[in-house]
Amino acid sequence: MTEERIIRPSKNILGSLRLPGDKSISHRYGMLAAFAEGTSRFTNFSTGADCASTLSCMEALGAQVRRVDDGTVEVTGVGGRVTPCDAPLDCGNSGSTMRMISGLLAPQEGRFTLVGDESLSRRPMERIRKPLEMMGARLVLTEGHAPLTIVGGALKAIDYTTPVPSAQVKTCILLAGLQTTGTTTVREAVRTRDHSELALRAFGAKVERTADSVSIYGPQALHAIEAAVPGDISSAAFFLCAAALFPGSNLVLGELGLNPTRAALLDVLTALGARVTVLNLEEKNAELVGTVQVTAPAEGLGTAEISGALAAQLIDELPVLAAIGPFTSGGIRIRDAKELRVKESDRIALVAKNLRAMGAEVSEFEDGLDVPGGQVLHGATIDSGGDHRIAMAFSVAALRAEGETVIQGAESVAISFPEFFDLLDLVAER
Ligand code: S3P
Hints:
The protein has helices at 23-35, 49-60, 95-105, 126-134, 167-178, 195-202, 233-244, 264-271, 309-313, 318-324, 347-357, 388-399, 420-427; strands spanning 4-7, 12-18, 39-43, 64-67, 73-76, 89-90, 110-115, 138-142, 145-152, 159-161, 182-187, 207-209, 213-218, 226-228, 250-257, 275-284, 287-295, 301-306, 328-334, 363-365, 368-371, 381-383, 405-408, 428-429. It is of the alpha/beta class. The chain has a 5-stranded mixed beta sheet with strand order 16-17-15-2-24. It has a 4-stranded mixed beta sheet with strand order 4-5-3-14, with helices on one face. Strands 6-7-9-8 form a 4-stranded mixed beta sheet. A hairpin with a 2-residue loop joins strand 16 (275-284) and strand 17 (287-295). Shikimate-3-phosphate is lined by residues 24, 27, 95-96, 166-168, 193, 315-316, 339.
């Protein structure tokens, strides 16, 4: 069932929020806890459907999951050996679930089949097949995609350089390496988000890093932990960008994850002219957490160019940055972001299509977009393509458009951020 949501223009963004737990960290905590020995306990666990997919796959593999009303999740792990599972494991819409679980399962004896929804079944899985087969597992794909079957068993350690910057692929290899005798090393040209490295250490594993590599020594056992999941900075991005659009705005987001491999958006907003203040910075299970306050510049936003390593680090925030591009003075230019084409949707094509629907001029490239500044947008019907980040990015653009905007496929926000529209109503002044 697809749902439509009407977004009316806003006068300002004001308020203070605490956001649900980070999706990337919740996936990793949930998966590692389910694999570890003992019972782990997480407060502020992600409320998104993607992390629920990870938990339900891990339940099918023998872990026990208990959800408490206040958003706490307790996970009792299988102690390093999963239960054989004949039924396909349903990863839903979640690329993280499918790619990371594949690494966890490849060293386990047995056959495992992983399936996903229509979007996930289009996404490239060759990127995990190659390293896992180098380690000695067999992965049978369907024309490079899911459904995929893993024929697991004892593996050998490898030294692998990732051809595309991907934290999911890095994690897949590290989770296989965790269970494999010897040293498995992953080298990456661009340092991608390092939540797996930090989470593996928090669960007691020894992981070593250099500037461009991560090594894990297997086999190692994991032990249960207790942790508070920091607020999701990729969900925060929609609110931070919204606040940056309104002179006079004042938005405060508490207990937000500020891991440096995830927080590049704050630098881009600063470069655009927004005032970004970070308070109460502390470390929790090696993850940085703090309060962020954003106010918009009286003279409006400037210009930004995002390319190279920055494009990889901001990959989930690019749709919303492009969507606010028309409201800057000098525009937003994005390059080296070809990966956007193989996310939950082709995000370059959908951003261009929806900006044009709102009356904007935009140039589309194979690896990015040029969104000129100084444009006036009008309300339009937005095709989210069932992609949560497209639905949320255009809800933000709609706040500054003239007239009402209809977001089609609005239910998709539940993939990462079910509370999105309610929280937007709380801070958007009409
Ligand atoms: C994620 C990594 C990124 C990101 C995704 C979450 C993760 O994907 O786009 O939303 O949690 O590791 P890739 O690894 O494919 O770049």
